[in-house]
Amino acid sequence: MKLLGTIAAMAALCIATVSVPASAQTKTIYIGMNGGPMEKAYTSQVLPDFEKQTGAKVVVVPGTSSDVLAKLIANRDKPQIHVAFLDDGVMARAVSLGICQKLDDSPVLKELYPFARMKDDVGAGVQLGMTGIAYNKKLFAEKSWAPPASWMDFADPKYKGKVVFQSASSSTFGLHGFLAINRLLGGNEQNVEPGFGKWASTVGPNVVEYIPNSAKISEMVQTGEAGLFPLTPTAVADLQDKGIPVAWANPKEGAVLLLVDLCVVTNNPDPQLAQKLAQYLLSAPAQEKAAEAGKQIPTNKLAKMPAAMQQSLGNVDSMTRTATMLDWSAINAHRAQWDARWNREIEK
């Protein structure tokens, strides 16, 4: 009996010894992305499937695109983030700094809209956005105004004191709106003189407030201060979910294409697992879950959106054909000067 007891104890010890390395081998992979609705959508619905498939644990490092890029730059010799989500303008900077490595060749890349594949596949669009015109439905109904239809509606005198514009020096939406109006005034990304020179006689007089980001918009809509402002369909849907009376309009000149891109970080601790995560996030099943959970517009052509989302947006293919694609190389080359000029001349 004593011998049997000894054997049993040794067996239990062996089992315990074997089980420790198994649990210790669980891999953790880190992904940098925007916090808030995006983080909630991915952590609740999208990432759990990848964790089941691979046995890895995916941890979100939340922050704005600029925050994530700053972390990547600070730790570029020994990065802690494996995969990064960045707005397309910020992604262009990351690529120029060598922060992103080429995506592995995969069938999923051929499923993406052509514009979602970055040059040399150093990254790819994981979420599609289009900055257009958002407006206060309650206010427009009270005033019997038709929905806005052009970027130049921001300069219509009837909206005096009802235009809210995000700062072009700190907000992608504000920059998009400014550049769209600059184009209609005769400029482009290499020439912003028309936008700056004519702002005071066009849009400027209508602006009730310049805001650093979109966080204040819900409050300003409810108080009736905000009538129209640049925004994406996804951001509008988030406001609608909170009961804010807003709607989105696609300008007749076309919305400004906005991509949230992903890239696998150069020299990350587990490049093989990072590539697997990137391929999964670009797949139709993952993007369908992101659409259901967070109204993220897919970049994978095979992904289906929920019926209500499809009805609200209309034909995404036709919208992308008319959307304006910006020259981020030209923008980033002059962004610092534009930011200083915006703060000095527009928000003076």
Q: What's the level 1 CATH class of the largest domain?
A: Alpha Beta
List the domain count as a whole number: 2
CATH-level-2 architecture of the largest domain: 3-Layer(aba) Sandwich
Please count the beta strands (DSSP E, at least 2 residues each).
Answer: 10
CATH superfamily of the largest domain: Periplasmic binding protein-like II
Helical percent range?
40-55%
Query: What is the distance, rounded to the nearest whole angstrom, between the alpha carbons of the first and last residues?
Result: 90 Å
Low-pLDDT parts are: 1-24
Evaluate the radius of gyration.
Answer: 24 Å
CATH level-3 fold name of the largest domain: D-Maltodextrin-Binding Protein, domain 2
Chain-averaged pLDDT: 90
User: Biggest sheet: strands, sense, closure?
Assistant: 8 strands, mixed
Strand content: 15-25%
Helix count from the secondary structure assignment: 14
GO biological process, one term: thiamine transport
Keywords: Signal
Protein name: ABC transporter substrate-binding protein
Pfam family, one: SBP_bac_8
Explain this structure.
It comes from Trinickia terrae. This is ABC transporter substrate-binding protein. Keywords: Signal. It holds the Pfam family SBP_bac_8. The protein has about 350 residues and is α/β, with parallel strands linked by helices. It has 2 domains: about 10-130 and about 260-310, D-Maltodextrin-Binding Protein, domain 2 (3-Layer(aba) Sandwich); about 130-255 and about 325-345, 3-Layer(aba) Sandwich (D-Maltodextrin-Binding Protein, domain 2), CATH 3.40.190.10. About 45% of the residues lie in helices and about 15% in strands. Strands 1, 2, 3, 4, 5, 8, 9 and 10 form an 8-stranded mixed sheet that branches. A two-stranded parallel sheet has the order 6-7. The termini are far apart. Mean pLDDT is about 90; it is low at about 1-25.
